[in-house]
Design a protein that fits this description.
The protein is α/β, with parallel strands linked by helices and 263 residues long. It has ten helices and nine strands. The longest helix has 15 residues, at 79-93.
Length: 263
């Protein structure tokens, strides 16, 4: 569910290095290309600190320009102000269509709002701990944890626990598993969105459903629920939804429509 006309969007990617591990950068940059072309790529940190050593190879591989920002005050992220100043300079250059702000910090909420007020598309990328104020200030927000290469923190399982989990996977039906993962609030969001745009027979085009859901909830992403895309996610909800795949003018391409079962 990329933003409309994403292939034409010229994006500035501004990364707060204090809020993203360098192991996540590859997957993050691949994700950003789904929304447009990153013409400016900058990352902000105090590169004199020992923990910045691992970044060198990553920055060279992805042509990201490091911006040095000394920590003048202990306990305060000094990269924030430098990133905000650069964002405003880039905004007034008139050469961009949007911004991708990579951070889990609520300090960028006002920046995201200001950029959108100027007609910019704003994509946020951050950890699941990101405050909701920053998430809803963006057109789209993506959790780092669902990207390729993201470090997943998992508790070790005992042999007995692992065996029990494997047995559950065999017994559990796909639809049951999906309903377990997809919370009630998200299901209600899907139902309400379909009702908003359904035709007289109750059918809604899947692409329009996905776009409207993201407008209502910028952090919505099927990967948050264990699905690669929206189609298999909704297909798993057979108890509440009907799916209709219709032939299109292009060979091999089908248009997917969805309808609530109680209609």
């Amino acid at each position: 569910m990329a933003l409309s006309n994403s292939k034409d969007l010229k994006l500035a990617v501004l990364i707060d290095a204090d809020n993203v591990p360098y192991s996540n950068v590859k997957g993050m940059m691949e994700e950003i290309t789904k929304f447009g072309t990153p013409t400016t790529k900058r990352i902000y940190a105090d590169w004199t600190k020992p923990n910045a050593n691992g970044w060198k190879a990553v920055l060279l591989e992805h042509a990201i320009t490091p911006i040095q920002q000394y920590s003048y005050t202990v306990g305060k992220n000094s990269s924030d102000s430098a990133l905000i100043i650069d964002a405003m300079d880039l905004l007034y250059s008139g050469k961009l269509d949007g911004f991708c702000i990579v951070s889990s910090d609520s300090d960028f909420t006002r920046l995201a709002i200001r950029l959108r007020e100027s007609g910019m598309k704003v994509i946020g990328i951050g950890e699941k701990k990101t405050p909701n104020s920053f998430i809803v200030a963006c057109d789209r927000f993506i959790y780092i944890e669902v990207l390729d290469g993201a470090i997943q923190k998992k508790k070790p399982k005992t042999a007995v626990a692992a065996s029990a989990t494997d047995a559950k996977k065999v017994i559990e039906k796909p639809a049951e598993k999906a309903l377990h993962k997809i919370d009630k609030q998200t299901i209600e969001l899907i139902e309400a969105t379909i009702e908003d745009i359904e035709d007289d027979d109750g059918w809604a085009f899947l692409g329009d459903v996905g776009n409207l859901i993201v407008k209502k909830k910028p952090e919505f992403d099927p990967r948050n629920y264990g699905f690669s895309k929206l189609t298999p996610m909704l297909k798993s909800l057979t108890d509440i939804l009907e799916i209709d795949e219709r032939e299109s003018d292009k060979k091999g391409i089908k248009h997917v429509y969805v309808r609530l079962r109680f209609n």
